[in-house]
Amino acid sequence: MDQPIDTVNYFIAGYSVIFGILIIYIASLILRWRNLKKEEDILKDIEPSK
Amino acid sequence: MTSKPRLLKVLDITTFIFFILALLMVFFIAPLEKVMGAVQKVFYFHVAAGWVGMISFMVAAIAGIIYLVKKDSKWDLVGYSAVEIGIAFTMINVITGAIWARPIWNAWWTWDPRLTTATIMELVYFAYLMLRQGIDDPERRNRFSAVYAIVGFISVPLTFFSIRIFDRTIHPVVIGSNDPSAVGAFDMTSLMLQTLLFSILVFTILFADLMWHRIRLGQYMNRVDELKLKIQD
Predict the structure, then answer these.
(1) In sequence order, which residues have a C-beta less than 8 Å from that of residue B116 and are 6 or more positions away?
(2) What whole-number distance in Å separates Cα of residue B119 and Cα of residue B113?
(3) Is B212 exposed, middle or buried (0-12, 13-18, 19+ CB in 10 A)?
(4) DSSP tag of B37
(5) What is the DSSP letter of B180?
(6) Could you tell me the residue ranges of all domains in chain B?
(7) What is the pLDDT of residue B165?
(8) With contact defined as beta carbons under 8 Å apart, do B56 and B47 qualify?
(9) Does the pLDDT of residue B180 top 60, yes or no?
(10) Three-class SS of residue B24?
């Protein structure tokens, strides 16, 4: 075979999956951190009034 | 919560730079494989992700053993964090494998020993997360999770060695063999090997970075829970 088979679409799909899963996981870490921060701020506001 | 440690900031930047370098090596330096074409380049991160998945599950098993010995909940957090990261990387490994297989094997999926054991391994660790969700008592949850992580680790060497011990596999063995029955096997040039080894190194650094972030998140969750209990009392 002189030329490799055309598999560019699969190459793009593969790297899209890699970036997609990594981005979703990192975003989940950031979101969970932000939600905790909000929760902590609310709890700290409640705490002194008790 | 304390601000991000300086060493973690350095690790974040190092990971990012190394990740970009790995991408440049894969896209522009590693040669195009003469039969498979561009899709072969998925293999560098496919293997690296599989490596990180297995390392994560090994860390979880070791953390499980240490937890059972010391009964210190910080080791439960290490194990839990490692499993969560391992699941994400194993998912990358399994899905990119299917994408590579479609043009090379002419099928997204076959019941090949490697594909089957890797998927079972992923499901075993999904069940670990479900187990944790099902137990409310923290001490009991930590103990059950530790035992599960140790027992579940059996699936890791089984997955790793599946292509080396089962004759009927068509999955290529990347290092140490060139089985003629493997479909999609190829001889690596030195540049391909360098790119693969560098990708594995970069993914290992990425794993360390994500572990640190995930453990910090877990510690933060514990502090917020303590604050909740303090307010309730």
Answers:
(1) B162
(2) 10
(3) middle
(4) B
(5) T
(6) 11-31+41-232
(7) 74
(8) no
(9) no
(10) helix
High-pLDDT (> 90) share of chain B, %: 72
Q: Which helix (H) or strand (E) holds B31?
A: none
Chain A 4-33, CB below 8 Å of chain B: which residues?
Answer: 4-8, 10-11, 13-15, 17-18, 21-22, 25-26, 29, 32-33
Distance of CA B29 to the CA centre of its chain: 25
Query: Do B98 and B107 form a contact (C-beta atoms < 8 A)?
Result: no
CA distance B145 to B156: 17
Report whether B233 contacts B107 (CB < 8 A): no
Chain B residues within an 8 Å CB radius of A41: none
> Which pTM was predicted?
0.90
Token reading at B77: 């957090």
Of B187, B53, B49, residue with least CA distance to B124: B53
| Residue among B41, B95, B228 minimizing CB distance to A11 | B41
Q: Are B177 and B164 in contact (CB under 8 A)?
A: yes
Query: Which pair of tokens denotes residue B213?
Result: 């972030």
Backbone angles phi, psi at B35, to 5 degrees: -105, -50
Could you give the 3-state DSSP secondary structure of residue B33? strand
Q: Cα-flanking dihedrals φ and ψ of residue B33, to 5°?
A: -70, 135
